[in-house]
Design a protein that fits this description.
Layout lengths: L2 E3 L2 E3 L5 E5 L10 E8 L3 E6 L1 E4 L2 E5 L7 E11 L5 E11 L2 H12 L3 H6 L2 H5 L3 H17 L24 H7 L3 H8 L18 H8 L2 H8 L7 H4 L2 E6 L2 E6 L4 E7 L1
C-alpha cells in the first residue's frame, strides 16, 4: 500500500504529488521508482525523485478528461524485472483555473465578455493571489486544445488595429499576469494585440508602463525577450505523434504520455 498526497489534481497537471511508502518498500539506492497512471484513453508514466527513504515526489501529468484513474507504483532494479509494488486510485478534476482559461479562450474578441473581466482589476487581488492565478491559468490555457484558427484578437480578422477595443492581452497585462502574457505572445494575434488601443486609448504596452510592471514591460518591448524565469519552473512538453514527453525542470522529473 502507498499513500498519494494529494489524491487528485487538475486536468492540466504540473502539481506536486508526494508518495508515502510502506516500511517494506523503503527506497534503496539501486531501486528506481515510477508511477503509471492508466486512464480510459491515455496512459502516463512519471519518474520520481527521492525525498527520504520513506517518500518520493513527482509531478501530476496533464490528463484528457475528468475521471478516476488507476495508479501503479513500479520498482526497477538493474538486471531484475520491473515489479508493481503498490496500486492506488487518483482523480483528475476540472478546477476554477481551468474554467477561467476556457472562459477567457472563448472571450477572445468578445467585447462584452472582455469588459466584464475588468471587475477583477477593481477588486485588486493580493500579489500572492495574482501569482497563483497567473501560474494556474497559464497552465490551464496551455493544456486547452485550442482550435487551429484560434486568435488572441478573436475570430473577426477584418478589424484593423485602428479600431479601439479590449483584447485578452489588455486583460493579462492589466492584472500583471506575466506567464499568461508570455503564453499569449506566442499565439496567433499575440504580437498584433500590443499595438491595439482600448476605449481609454491604452495599449497593453502603455498599461504595463502605467502600472509599473517593469518585467512585463520588458517582455512586451525588448527584442528577443526570453521567457520569464517564473515560466521556466513549469514543465516543458515535446509532442511526437501519439506520444508526448514532459520535463519538469524544477523537480527534474520526466513524464511520458501515450494513447492507451
Amino acid at each position: 500500500v502507498m499513500k498519494l498526497n494529494p489524491q487528485q489534481a487538475p486536468l492540466y497537471g504540473d502539481s506536486v504529488i508526494t508518495v508515502q511508502l510502506t516500511e517494506e518498500d523503503k527506497v534503496e539506492d539501486d531501486v528506481v521508482f515510477y508511477l503509471v497512471f492508466t486512464g480510459s484513453t491515455v496512459q502516463h508514466c512519471t519518474s520520481t525523485r527521492k525525498i527520504n527513504p520513506g517518500s518520493l515526489e513527482t509531478i501530476s501529468p496533464g490528463h484528457d478528461c475528468c475521471e478516476t484513474v488507476k495508479v501503479a507504483l513500479c520498482a526497477s532494479r538493474e538486471g531484475h524485472p520491473v515489479l508493481v509494488v503498490a496500486e492506488e486510485s487518483f482523480q483528475f478534476v476540472q478546477d476554477e483555473a481551468y474554467d477561467a482559461a476556457q472562459f477567457l479562450a472563448t472571450c477572445a474578441g468578445n467585447q462584452q465578455a472582455l469588459n466584464f473581466t475588468r471587475f477583477l482589476d477593481r477588486s485588486r487581488p493580493p500579489a500572492a493571489d495574482v501569482d497563483f492565478l497567473d501560474e494556474k491559468v497559464a497552465l490551464a490555457f496551455r493544456h486547452l486544445k485550442l482550435p487551429a484558427e484560434w486568435n488572441v484578437l478573436g475570430a473577426d480578422q477584418s478589424l484593423t488595429e485602428n479600431i479601439p477595443r479590449e483584447t485578452l492581452m489588455h486583460f493579462a497585462v492589466r492584472l500583471g499576469l506575466l506567464r499568461l502574457t508570455w503564453f499569449l505572445l506566442q499565439q496567433p494575434g499575440g504580437r498584433g494585440a500590443l499595438s491595439i488601443h482600448n476605449n481609454e486609448g491604452a495599449t497593453p504596452v502603455s498599461l504595463a508602463l502605467e502600472r509599473g510592471y517593469q518585467k512585463l514591460h520588458q517582455l512586451l518591448t525588448e527584442e528577443g525577450a526570453r521567457e520569464p524565469d517564473s515560466w521556466s519552473t513549469l514543465s516543458h512538453t515535446v509532442h511526437s505523434g501519439d506520444y508526448s514527453v514532459k520535463h519538469h525542470r524544477g523537480l527534474d522529473v520526466y513524464l511520458l504520455t501515450a494513447q492507451a
